[in-house]
């Protein structure tokens, strides 16, 4: 369990190295999300995207990346919105311990 000082004012981790599955659970809880295997699959994909491109994806690149890596069924906005309501790219990146995507408000 990380202290409140480990996060910025929007709840994103200040030190990306501090992320762990337990921290992901803590952040998800604060967002009102109970993590399922489907959530973990997207979280791993987000972390993979970050390793590959050194950036958190905005929504459109996230949808394309999901489609490419997980198939057309999961590469759809509606699927991601069901898992991460509101802003899948922003909330997913936050739970995955990544920086806020550049173009997310």
Q: How would you portray this structure in words?
A:
It is a single chain. The chain is mainly alpha-helical and 105 residues long. The protein has one domain (16-96): Arc Repressor Mutant, subunit A, CATH 1.10.10.370. It has helices at residues 21-30, 37-53, 59-70, 77-83, 88-95. Helix 2 packs across helix 3 (59-70). The longest helix is centred in the middle third of the chain and has 17 residues, at 37-53. It starts with 20 loop residues before the first helix and ends in a 10-residue tail after the last helix. The mean pLDDT is 94. Pfam families: DsrC. This is Sulfurtransferase.
Care to give the gist of this entry?
With 105 residues, the protein is mainly α. 51% of the residues lie in helices and 0% in strands.
Largest sheet: none
CATH class: Mainly Alpha
Q: On the 0-100 scale, what is the average pLDDT?
A: 94
CATH architecture: Orthogonal Bundle
Subcellular location: Cytoplasm
Keywords: Cytoplasm, Transferase
Organism: Seongchinamella sediminis
GO molecular function: sulfur carrier activity; transferase activity
């Amino acid at each position: 369990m990380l202290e409140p000082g480990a996060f910025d004012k929007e709840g994103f981790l200040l030190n990306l190295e501090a992320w762990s599955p337990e921290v992901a659970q803590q952040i998800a809880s604060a967002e009102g999300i109970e993590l399922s295997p489907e959530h973990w699959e997207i979280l791993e994909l987000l972390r993979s995207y970050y390793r590959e491109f050194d950036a958190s994806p905005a929504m459109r690149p996230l949808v394309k990346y999901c489609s490419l890596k997980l198939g057309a069924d999961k590469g759809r906005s509606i699927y991601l919105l069901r898992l991460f309501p509101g802003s899948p790219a922003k909330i997913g990146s936050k739970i995955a311990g990544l920086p806020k995507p550049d173009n997310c408000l």
